[in-house]
Amino acid sequence: MNYKIAGYQCKTYDKPVKRYCQTMDLKDDPELIVKYKEAHDRYHSWPEIREGIRSVGILEMEIYILGNRLFMIVETPLDFEWESAMAKLATLPRQAEWEDYVAMFQNCEKGSTSDEKWKMMERMFYLYE
What is the mean pLDDT of the chain? Predict the structure, then answer.
């Protein structure tokens, strides 16, 4: 399917949600980028990491890539508290191991948590109502 034409279907929820958008750069190495993408595919991503993300209240998380630039969208309930959720996420089983593993692909300091690696983006435009 040609995503440029078809787009991506968004989940719908029975309640209002909010969205967080973040960015990060990978090391500019095509071989590492292929391995990073594989580590996040349906067959290689770690189930404990996906379960941990959901357990802190995240409803959906998507990562998009262009070159070595990543863009992440996180959807949560309106009452979601980012800082406390990220603090809890950092303590969950295998999370630190996962962060250390994916750090070899990312432009980040060794030992960084997910919240330290990903930089929150500011929304600067939307179709104003």
Answer: 95
Helix/strand/coil (H, E, C) string of 59-122? Answer: CEEEEEEECCEEEEEEEEECCCCHHHHHHHHHHCCCHHHHHHHHHCCECCCCCCCHHHHCEECC
How far is the C-alpha of 9 from the C-alpha of 25, rounded, in Å?
A: 25
Instruction: Please give the span between the terminal C-alpha atoms of the chain, in angstroms, as a whole number.
Output: 32
Tens digit of each residue's pLDDT (9 = 90 or more) over 54-67: 999 999 999 999 99
Q: How does 69-103 read in b/e, with b if 16+ C-beta sit within 10 Å?
A: ebebbbbbeeebebeebeeebbebeebeebbeebe
Interval 70-83: pLDDT, tens: 999 999 999 999 99
Say whether pTM exceeds 0.90: yes
